[in-house]
Each structure stands twice: as C-alpha cells, then as structure tokens.
Amino acid sequence: MTTVNNNDPHVAKTGNEKKRLTNEVFARVTRSLNVGKQTLDIAYGVLVEGRPQKYFVETLGISRGAVSQAVNRVWDAYKQEVPDGFVRIEVVLPERQAFIVKKWADEAKRKQEE
Q1: What is the biggest distance separating any 2 CA atoms in the chain, rounded to whole angstroms?
Q2: How confident is the model at residue 1 (pLDDT cuts 50, 70, 90)?
Q3: Rounded to 5 degrees, what are φ and ψ at 83?
Q4: Where is the TrfB transcriptional repressor protein domain (predicted)?
Q5: Do residue 48 and residue 99 come from a single domain?
Q6: Exposure string over 95-105, b if 16+ CB within 10 A, otherwise e
C-alpha cells in the first residue's frame, strides 16, 4: 500500500501544481537511494528549489526524459516511504479476506490524513 498524505505540508498538491519536498524530506528519502550525483542535483533542484525541469535540460544539455527520470527516481522513493507506525506487507489471500484487508488499509489511510 502506498500512502501519501495529501495534507502533508512537505508536498504540493497534485494537479497543475508541482511536486515539492522540503530539504529535510529530500535528505531522508535520498539517504539510502543508490543514484548518482547528477540525478540528486537535478532532483534537488526541481523538488526542493522549485526549478523547472527545462532549466536542467538547457544547462546540462540532456533530454527532457533524462531530467524527468531523475526527478521521478526520488519522487517514487518518497511515495514508497512507509509512515511511522505502519508496516508494508505482501500476502496472497482469498478474495473475501483481501477485500477486508483493503478496507482496513483504506480506513487507516483516512485516519492518518485527518
């Protein structure tokens, strides 16, 4: 279950607004991420400093796809974080039990967002 708190002050809302992280969250997310310095620099510039991706395309002479991939590597790592007090599990269950577990997950997510 991926849990992203839409009320999280570290993250911009979805839609036309840009993805953003605080310096603290960026440092935590990238601490164990195995990526190169350029990827970190690009992702930091976009996610923390709010620079447009086009800036890195033009200044580094790399493709839009490469810049997007750098940003998404860090953003995806952020989305995969498990909140304190939660545990990520993967199980195979009969359909009825899976339905119940999904309801529990939805309820936990709602409570976390309150």
Answers
A1: 54
A2: very low
A3: -60, 155
A4: 21-103
A5: no
A6: eeeeeeeeeee
3-state SS of the chain?
Answer: CCCCCCCCCCCCCCCCCCCCCCHHHHHHHHCCCCCCHHHHHHHHHHHCCCCCHHHHHHHHCCCHHHHHHHHHHHHHHHHCCCCCCCCCCCCCCCHHHHHHHHHHHHHHHHHHHC
Indicate the number of domains in the chain.
2
On average, the pLDDT of the chain sits at 86
CATH of the domain at 35: 1.10.10.2690
State the number of CA atoms in the 13 A half-sphere of 56 facing the CB: 24
Q: What is the pTM of this model?
A: 0.66
